[in-house]
Amino acid sequence: MMWKDKLMQLIGEENVIVKQAAVDRLSKDFYWYSPVLHEQLRDKVADCAVAPKTIEELKTIVQFAVENRIPLTPRGAGTGNYGQGVPLFGGIVLDLTRLNQIVEVNDTTVKVQAGVKMGILEKTLRKEEKELRIFPSTFMKSTVGGFLCGGSGGIGSIRWGNLWDGNVLEVTIITIEEEPRILNVSGEEMHDYIHNYGTTGILVEAVLPIEPKTEWSQFIVSFTTFQQAVLFCDELAHNEAITKRLLSVCEWPIPAHFQQLKKHLTEDKSIAMLEIAEPAVPLLHELIDKYSGEVSFTISSDKYHKGLKVSDFTWNHATLWAHKHGENITYLQARFDPQRVFEQMRLIREKFELEVQFHFEFMKNKGKVTSGSLPIVEYKSKERLYEIIDFFEENGVSVNDPHTYLLGSGGYNLRMKEIETLKKQNDPYDLLNKGKIPKDEKMELMN
Ligand code: FAD
Fold it and tell me: Could you give the domains of the chain?
């Protein structure tokens, strides 16, 4: 009997997804942001998918996969950008979105199952006068497990930092063994389970810190030059009297792609996109005046997360909007030197003109304000893309390469040795998200 038939016998035919269109969809994420990844991953597909409703069901599937040595690929909403959720060797996609219980809300923490959507969690918390610290701009779709295992930061990171800055308190992991173990991991060791593409265990629950609810007003402020917009954002980022949740800046012509904002934006003006605590709004206006900015669009705090959101145009949503207007658009993840940022931008502009367009997200990293850049790049060829990356690096701009699905190759300073050790302990048959931890022979197979 084929293993898929055995699986159907074990958990019921109706619980194994085999329809090709559904399996194809569940085998994909947003890897197509990268034409390089698109080439490598477009025909990778699982044999079937399952969506367990309980942790017990999940354990049964894991045991089955171990006995039959079937690759397993965990999946949340599939909004990852690096193909990290694409099954490279067939097998079973584990759709975890039905593990969606909010287990417990306390004064300062929330315990949730991995498949809870970040947006539903935030909405639930706000009803109880609380809120999340950080969530990605894809929060309406993406899951807690997917964010912890595949994301980094987002809305809230300007105040609280990213996933490594105390914004995850504990994770519960299921190992991939004949007798799956349940591990409760916290402290330093937990860092090796964050942003590791779920390669060392399936995350089933997490405890996150939460905060009292704040009323957030949203603004788009326009500036005549991008330099002015960046200087404004830098001062705002460092101004602790103005509590903020989002601080993003895009140079023109990136905002030209923001279809839903079109009537509010002016040609040639660069924009800052902000979420600001209501009581700090008068201080914000003083700062806007200082930098000769102009408020182009406001969403009052009573309309927060009801309908249009400024965050829909920030982080990698900016790239998505640009992509909608040209298939040959891609992006980079870069870090400019704060002392040389304008000189570095000038050198890049002189060399590549509008082939590279600038976008920064301000955030905290280990308590210090910093900015990450998600420049939009017109894609011409893989060679040209790496020529651009080389030029960035030669000029002191570091790049986290978003054009690889291999863990650790895209930056983030992951502790790869520790992750590899955990992989051997927790997944001894190398079944979980197989091929994402770089090994020479696998790299050869895929490239
Ligand atoms: P998926 O894509 O389903 O999974 C991500 C990775 O985690 C995969 O490797 C998967 O195998 C693994 N995984 C998923 N669930 C589990 C689990 N329970 N246990 C073990 N492994 C698991 N990212 C940010 O950090 N910040 C942003 O602001 C941001 N903005 C984005 C904007 C757009 C338009 C897009 C397309 C992407 C953006 N991303 C961003 C990337 C991505 O949306 C986020 O990282 C998101 O949180 C991923 O969640 P997901 O549920 O879709 O995860």
Answer: 216-400 (3.40.462.40)
